[in-house]
Amino acid sequence: MNTILLLLPPLINVLVTGIFAFVILRQYISRRRSYQLYWSISLLMAFVATLAYMAMLMVGPTSEPGTYFFRLYYALGGTIMPSWLGMGSIALISKPRVSRAFVGFLLLLSLIAGTFVLDATIDMARLSHIAGTPGTGTLQPGPWLVMTILLNTLGVVAVAGVALLSGWKMLRKQARMGEIRTSNILWANIFIFTGAILNAAAGTLARFLGLDSIFWLIMALGWIVLFLGVLLASRRSRHSHNVATAQTTHTDPVKA
């Protein structure tokens, strides 16, 4: 019964990230926007990382398979994933050539960071008490820590920065865009910004409140808020596309 309760919060994250990844990946297949591809990659990383965490608990954290699952969880979810979420935001506002340059650099950093995590020394005593917590302090300090801080910082700055920049630009535009109110777009950016901050600060908030066990619940809340923001932004994108199509159809006569 205790094990089921410990698995419930990560399971919520599996469901949320899985649904989120499916929706964004379907949008990418339909529209072929690079930012949707990078967001899908980051969400799939979060999905696999959370599954690895659950698998670790089921086989035993300190068992040999358990340590492998922990490293996979930490490499994907704790270290690499936030930077790819940020990559999606960068691709949203940058030219394809610039995005490709960033992707090449990020691939190199991700490979280095993943190698460092896989090679880091594990504090087995801490690992034995990881259930329900993010696992902070389980890896002994080393090069992986520098890469984790770097990639997490880049990811959060990119997601939050692009959201704030987009919101600021909308404040300078007209009160309405077609039939979509500017306030709806502003709310989308507010949700994306808030979700990114919640995810980045989940571990800190859990420790600040003295309840490491709520880490996964804060993460789930962050993903849900971020998801709502992306859905609101997608509504605006679909509307803009439909308006442009209608205008083209109205302007250009249909040839028999």
Automatic annotation (TrEMBL):
Keyword Membrane: yes
Bilayer-crossing regions: 6-25, 37-60, 72-94, 101-122, 142-165, 186-208, 214-233
Entry keywords, A to Z: Membrane, Transmembrane, Transmembrane helix
Keyword Transmembrane annotated: yes
Highest taxon above the source species: Bacteria
Full protein name: Histidine kinase N-terminal 7TM region domain-containing protein
Organism from which the protein derives: Dictyobacter kobayashii
